[in-house]
Specification:
It is a single chain. The strands form 7 sheets. The chain has a 4-stranded mixed sheet. A 4-stranded mixed sheet has the order 2-15-17-16, covered by helices on one side. Strands 4-5-3-14 form a 4-stranded mixed sheet, covered by helices on one side. It folds into 2 domains: 203 residues, UDP-n-acetylglucosamine1-carboxyvinyl-transferase, Chain (Alpha-beta prism); 217 residues, Enolpyruvate transferase domain (UDP-n-acetylglucosamine1-carboxyvinyl-transferase, Chain, Alpha-beta prism). By secondary structure, the chain is α/β, with parallel strands linked by helices. The mean pLDDT is 95. It is globular, with a radius of gyration of 22 Å. It is built from 14 helices and 26 strands. Strand 20 and strand 21 form a beta hairpin. The protein binds uridine-diphosphate-N-acetylglucosamine (UD1). The site of uridine-diphosphate-N-acetylglucosamine has 20 residues, from helix 1, helix 5 and helix 6.
Length: 429
């Protein structure tokens, strides 16, 4: 198993190109199941989760062609996928595949919408607490699918097609909103989604589906209205920049000190995290090439932050902010309201010398003068990158084990940080 070795104490200076968003690329790839024509997705990140979804879609009969290199292109360009679900040969998504990546459960919606039936394994346990799929199933049932749970599988049937309806989510859910949008796109009649998730990735999915001929309005607000159409066409769509990767590298610069241009990304995707960074004393400047982030010399001020659905501070940046606050000049508080039990990084940060106390959903972080490198273990995607951030400011060597978590969501992390001066390398095997 690969490990990452980091020697802390180096400034970060230079340019970091931001990749296409993993959390947009996955639902966009899944949306290809809604049409028999080819969907071309540009700026798709090269990530383990994307490769796994390619396998899962392949199992349903989807052909995916990866575009070749174009003149002037470097590894910093995302890949172009030509996705064709002309022939869906299998409407079952098996446990072996779905259990490896929760988002693959989302194939349920387009499969039942287009094929009239789907059999998708329940995703099962996950390192960040119980993550049920009851609201995703509720959305599909509201549109008229008959649902049955059979040996760990959700079986959804709508042989005569789905019917538009009102879907009211009791809790904001990204996966639930993606599911409802995809199912309603091909339903007969109008669907209204209330208390919809407002994440930029929801807007990206709706934009792409509209290019494919769907009639979706209100994405990005709490109320989304979808007039179902009989058929969707192919389209070409560019995946939006990854706001979590953007925020992660912004926090890395804040931690290490230095000045970085985060290229090909936009502040409107992460205004709340930027406001928090500014409160810590970091300088953030939007430019027409991206976002410039700098911390030259000054210390970090502590902050009080509560995670919540977009546009609030994202849970996917909670671990990274916590790593940063371990070096603040005072005590910070972070409250996690989106997922229970999403504090596994706390024990590992403590191994580097962090002082963090947990009380239910609230973490109290007492800033320390120095962190000291140690071997640590990555437990999930965002937790693992928080260890990298802490290691950038720790004295001596940190070895991050179980790097496969990082590879699920961060493209060439060691290369992007290494080019800016970090002492970071991947040890294979
Ligand atoms: C997505 C993101 C993930 C991010 C999360 C919250 C992708 C691929 N993943 O995950 O990175 O951390 O949004 O921003 O885009 N819930 C239920 N019942 C359900 C579904 C969800 O109770 O049927 C709960 C969850 O347990 C959680 C909350 O709703 O407490 C939000 O989860 P949700 O927004 O659905 O997260 P995901 O879509 O799984």
């Amino acid at each position: 198993m690969d490990r990452i070795r980091i020697v802390g104490g180096r400034r970060l200076d230079g340019i970091i190109p931001i990749s296409g968003a993993k959390n947009a690329a996955l639902p966009l790839m899944i949306a290809s199941l809604l049409t028999e024509q080819t969907l071309v997705l540009e700026n798709v990140p090269r990530l383990a989760d994307v490769a796994l979804l390619q396998r899962i879609l392949g199992n349903h009969g989807v052909d995916i062609m990866v575009g070749g290199k174009r003149p002037g292109e470097t590894a910093d360009h995302g890949q172009t996928l030509h996705i064709s679900a002309a022939n869906i040969v299998d409407t079952t998504a098996p446990y072996e595949l779905v259990s490896k990546m929760r988002a693959s459960f989302w194939v349920l919606a387009p499969l039942v919408a287009r094929m009239g039936e789907a059999r998708v394994s329940m995703p099962g346990g996950c390192a960040i607490g119980t993550r049920p799929v009851d609201l995703l199933i509720m959305a599909i049932a509201r549109l008229g699918a008959a649902i049955e749970i059979d040996s760990g599988y959700v079986v959804a049937r709508a042989p005569r097609g789905l019917k538009g309806a009102e879907i009211v989510f009791p809790k904001v859910t990204v996966g639930g909103t993606h599911t409802a949008i995809m199912a309603a796109a091909l339903a007969d009649g109008t669907t209204v989604i209330e208390n919809a998730a407002r994440e930029p990735e929801i807007v990206d999915l709706a934009d792409c589906l509209n290019k494919m001929g769907a009639r979706i309005s209100g994405a990005g607000s709490r109320r989304i209205v979808i007039d179902g159409v009989a058929k969707l066409n192919g389209a070409r769509h560019t995946v939006l920049p990854d706001r979590i990767e953007t925020g992660t590298y912004a926090m890395a610069v804040a931690m290490a000190g230095g000045e970085i241009l985060l290229q090909n990304t936009r502040v409107d995707l992460l205004q709340a995290p930027i406001d928090v960074l500014v409160r810590t004393g970091v300088t953030v400047t939007p430019t027409n090439r991206g976002i410039r982030v700098a911390r030259n010399g000054g210390g970090l001020e502590p902050v009080e932050v509560t995670t919540a659905p977009f546009p609030e501070f994202p849970t996917d940046l909670q671990a990274q902010l916590m790593a940063l606050m371990t070096r603040a000049r005072g005590t910070s508080h972070i409250v996690e309201t989106v997922f229970e039990n999403r504090f596994m990084h706390v024990q590992e940060l403590a191994r580097l010398g962090a002082r963090i106390q947990l009380d239910g959903e609230k973490a109290t972080i007492e800033g320390v003068e120095r962190l000291k490198g140690a071997p640590v273990m990555a437990t999930d995607l965002r937790a693992s990158v928080s260890l990298v951030i802490a290691a950038l400011a720790a004295e001596g060597e940190t070895l991050v084990n179980r790097v496969y978590h990082l590879d699920r969501g961060f493209e060439r992390l060691e290369e992007k940080l290494g080019r800016c001066g970090a002492a970071i390398e991947r040890l294979s095997g």
